[in-house]
């Protein structure tokens, strides 16, 4: 179980300033949570299939069909800035 020193260490890592009463409450709460995990680990799960979610998720996919394409004049009219026939955008990757 978690002791006062471990709570102090966790509070330091989380940049929390806890009063002595808050530290004791935190210690109690964390030990209660860990107790629940101990109860769960005692359950026999032999033959139970693992799952990530309680419901099955299915991706709804469609064919990748090309659609209408904007002409160069439309793109140039919509672009905030053009350079050499290309849309100029702000730099997103720094180079050395």
Task: Provide structural commentary.
The structure is a single chain. With about 100 residues, the protein is mainly α. About 40% of the residues lie in helices and about 5% in strands. It has three helices and two strands. It has helices at about 5-15, 20-40, 70-80; strands at about 80-85, 85. The protein has a two-stranded antiparallel ribbon with strand order 1-2. A hairpin with a 2-residue loop joins strand 1 and strand 2. Helix 1 (about 5-15) crosses helix 2 (about 20-40). The longest helix is centred in the first third of the chain and has 22 residues, at about 20-40. The two termini are about 50 Å apart. The mean pLDDT is about 90.
Strand order of the largest sheet: 1-2
The multimeric state of the shown protein is: single chain
- The radius of gyration is 28 Å
Give unreliable regions as ranges. none
Strand content: under 5%
Summed up, the helix count is 3
What is the helix/strand order? HHHEE
The helix content, as a percent range, equals 40-55%
Described by the principal axes of the CA atoms, the overall outline is elongated
Q: What is the CA-CA span between the terminal residues? A: 49 Å
| Biggest sheet record | 2 strands, antiparallel
Number of strands: 2
């Amino acid at each position: 179980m978690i002791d006062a020193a471990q709570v102090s260490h966790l509070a330091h890592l989380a940049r929390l300033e806890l009063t002595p009463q808050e530290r004791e409450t935190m210690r109690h709460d964390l030990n209660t949570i860990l107790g629940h995990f101990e109860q769960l680990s005692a359950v026999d799960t032999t033959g139970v299939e693992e799952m990530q979610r309680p419901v099955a998720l299915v991706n709804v996919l469609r064919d990748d069909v090309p659609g209408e394409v904007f002409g160069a004049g439309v793109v140039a009219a919509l672009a905030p800035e053009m350079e050499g026939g290309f849309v100029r955008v702000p730099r997103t990757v720094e180079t050395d």
